[in-house]
Amino acid sequence: MLDLFPDSAAIDGSRLSLGGLDAEALADKHGTPLVVLCEDTVRATARALREAVGDGRVFFGTKALPNVALLRLLREEGIGADVASAGELAFARAAGLEGADLVVHGNNKDAALLAGAAAVGAPVVLDAPDEAQLAADAGVGQVLVRVTLGVDADTHEAIRTGHHGSKFGLPPDQARAIVAEALDLGLEAMGVHVHVGSQLEDFDAQAETIVRLASFVAGCRDELGWVAQVADLGGGFGIRHHPADRAPDAAELAHAAARTARLGFVEEGLPQPEIWLEPGRSVVGRAGVTLYRVGSVKRLPGRTWVAVDGGMSDNPRPQLYGARYTALSAARASEAVDEVVSVAGMHCESGDVLIDDVALPSPRRGDLLAVPATGAYTMAMASNYNGVPRPAMVLVRDGDVRVIRARETVEDLLRQER
Ligand SMILES: Cc1ncc(COP(=O)(O)O)c(C=O)c1O
C-alpha cells in the first residue's frame, strides 16, 4: 500500500515517515487533521508532465489545491496556473505568476475575474456565447475558445465535462461563431481548449476528443480562414486513491495526449499546435497524506466505527463522488492488520464516513491514521461544517518541514460573525 503514498514515504520499524519526518512527530507538533505534502513528489510529477509536452506549456489546475507556496514551487518548475475565479487568480499572483504563466477559466466568469485577467495580461478561455464581447470590453487581449465535443468520459458524472449538454464550453457551431466574433472584435484568438473530465483512468475519451478537436480546428480553417496555434488539452489524469484503483501514469497519458494532438493536426493538414495541459489532481494527489487522530472506537454487532477528528469538512470526496480511500496506522504500521473497521468523521451526518472498510491493527483511541492520495480536491473543498476550523498543511522534504497553510482557528471563524 506504500505505493499510494508519496515517494518519500517509508516505514521505519513500525512508524510511518514522510519527507524524512516521523508522521507521529509531525502530528504532535502541528496538530490533526494535518495535510502533509511531499515536495519531492510534487516536483518529480511536475517535471515529468512538463517533459511530456516538449516545448508546450503546463498550467497547474489551481482548483485541485489553491496554495501560494505550492504555486511558487511549481513556478520554479516552469509550471503556470489555470485559475477559475478572482480568488484563484489572487493566489497565483501572490505566487508571482502573471501574463503568459496563467490561463483563465470559468463557465460564468465575473467582472472581477475578467478585469483581473486583463490587468495581468492573461489569456482567457471563452466559455459563453457573449464572452468574447465581455472579454473585449474588459480589455482582455488573448483568448482561447472552449469547445465541447460530445464525448462521455468514463468517470463520475459530477466530474464529466466534455459530453453533449455539459455546462462547460460550447458546442462546435457556437464555438466557431465565438471564434469569428473574437476575431471581429480584434482579440488575439490563440487557440482552442478541451477538458473531458477529471479522474480519467484511461485515455479513450481524451483520444476521441483530441481527434474531434483536430477536425473542429480544420473546420475553423475552412470556414473562417483561422488556424488555432494553441491546443489546450485540459487536465483530468486520474490517480489511485485505493489499492483496488487503476490509473496509468499521468506523464504517460500526457505524452499520449500531446502525440495524439500532433498526429491529429498533421492528418487534418494543419500546422503543429503548441500543446498546453492543465493537470491538477495528478500533480498533488499522491503527494498529499492526511493525518487524523483516532477518538472514539465503537464495536457494534456487524460494524466497528473508528471516529477521527476530521471528516467531510476536510475531505468531502466520499460523499460527493463515492470516493474510496484506505488508511495506515501510522505508528503501528508493521503490526498485523487484524480488524476490519469503518472510519467515521466527527460530523453530524451519518453519511460522514471517510472509509467504509479498511483492515487495521485493532484500533484504539489515540492512534494516528494516515490516509494517502489526499492532496487534491480535499483541502480545496474543505468547509467549516459544525464550526470546525480547516486543517493546517505542511510541506516536507529531507527532514525539513514548512507550514504552508496555517490551521484555522475558531477565532478566525468568529471574526466573520456580525
Ligand atoms: C478546465 C479545467 N482544466 C483543468 C482541470 C484539472 O483537472 P484535473 O485535476 O482532473 O487534472 C479542470 C478540473 O476539473 C478543469 O475544469
**CATH H-tier superfamily of the largest domain:** Alanine racemase
User: Gap between N and C termini, in Å?
Assistant: 47 Å
Oligomer category = single chain
Tally the beta strands: 20
Mean pLDDT: 96
Provide the CATH topology of the largest domain: TIM Barrel
Number of structural units classed as domains:
2
Radius of gyration from CA coordinates = 22 Å
Task: Please identify the structural class as seen in this structure.
Answer: alpha/beta
Strand-residue proportion = 15-25%
- Share of helix, binned: 25-40%
Describe the structure.
With about 425 residues, the chain is an alpha/beta fold. It folds into 2 domains: about 1-30 and about 285-415, Lyase, Ornithine Decarboxylase, Chain A, domain 1, CATH 2.40.37.10; about 40-280, TIM Barrel (Alpha-Beta Barrel), CATH 3.20.20. About 30% of the residues lie in helices and about 25% in strands. It has helices at about 25-30, 40-50, 70-75, 85-95, 110-120, 130-140, 170-185, 205-225, 250-265, 280-285, 315-320, 410-415; strands at about 10, 15-20, 20, 35-40, 55-60, 80-85, 100-105, 125, 140-145, 190-195, 230, 275, 290-300, 305-310, 330, 340-345, 355-360, 370, 390-395, 400-405. Strands 4, 13, 14, 15, 16, 17, 18, 19 and 20 form a 9-stranded mixed β-sheet that branches. An 8-stranded parallel β-sheet has the order 7-6-5-12-11-10-9-8, covered by helices on one side. Helix 4 (about 85-95) links the parallel strand 6 (about 80-85) and strand 7. Helix 2 runs parallel beside helix 9 (about 250-265) and helix 6 packs parallel to helix 7. It is elongated. It binds pyridoxal-5'-phosphate. Pyridoxal-5'-phosphate binds near residues 236 and 281.
